[in-house]
Design a protein that fits this description.
7-stranded mixed β-sheet, alpha/beta, Rossmann fold, 34% helix
């Protein structure tokens, strides 16, 4: 995995400062998020590239140095954050178009579909699905938003194994998810599974909020949604 400072693109180092931690979904590179507004009063970091989980403990030590963490996890990043950073003292946690189960027959992407995606993945088709079939900015097609195809398939393989090793239920977490954003027409992560997973979570977390949007799986094209519903107001 890679953990970088979103502003400098350099590896994140320990710091005594508030941190906005963005745990990305599979495949997308930092340049896909370069237009996002970031908080002025905190460091902003991005975790991505799930082709190798062997450095998880080292990354956790870095994150433990931050006195305050605001977590935003997207797609399969929700599952990754739940499993790897369950002991962190997170002040706020938002899940976007994903679940804490990740790959699951009822509460995530079905194992069969995930496996077929890994075998037959095509970059252009995946991008079109992520953007709801409409890459409105033609320049987006020219940018290297995704890793090379072999890396993508390897990343999917590792994520599937990661979820399989976990077992049926997610790890218990020291932090509480505060809100989920679900795209009702998500073409990557089934909205039905998202609704089932988060409604189940809400049963034991009464203050948990579920927000629905018409934005595609890659919700970040909706700047208003990002700034008004995703960014923590305390930063």
């Amino acid at each position: 995995m890679k953990l970088i400072n979103l502003k400098t693109r350099e590896n994140l180092t320990p710091a005594n400062a508030p941190l906005l931690l963005f745990v990305s979904g599979f495949g997308f590179l930092p340049c896909a998020f370069e237009s996002l507004k970031l908080p002025q009063n905190a460091l902003s970091a991005m975790l991505y590239d799930y082709s190798d989980f062997s450095n998880a403990k080292n990354l956790q030590k870095i994150l433990e140095s931050f006195p305050q963490i605001h977590l935003i996890a997207w797609s399969m990043g929700v599952c990754v954050a739940q499993e790897l950073f369950s002991s962190l003292q997170v002040k706020s946690a938002l899940g976007i178009n994903g679940t804490i189960f990740g790959v699951h027959k009822n509460f995530g992407i079905s194992p069969k579909i995930f496996s077929l995606t890994q075998q037959k993945l095509q970059r252009e088709a995946f991008l079109n699905s992520a953007f709801g079939g409409d890459l409105r900015d033609e320049n987006m097609r020219e940018k290297s938003l995704l890793a090379p195809i072999d890396s993508l398939k390897n990343e999917l393989k590792n994520l599937q194994e990661f979820c399989a090793q976990r077992g049926e239920n997610p790890r218990r977490s020291a932090f509480v998810w505060n809100k989920a954003i679900i795209s009702d027409d998500d073409k990557i992560f089934p909205p039905k599974a998202q609704n089932l997973a988060w409604e189940s979570y809400k049963q034991t977390h009464k203050d948990f909020v579920i927000l629905h949007t018409n934005a595609p799986h890659f919700v970040f094209i909706d700047e208003k949604l990002w700034e008004e519903q995703c960014l923590p107001r305390s930063l």
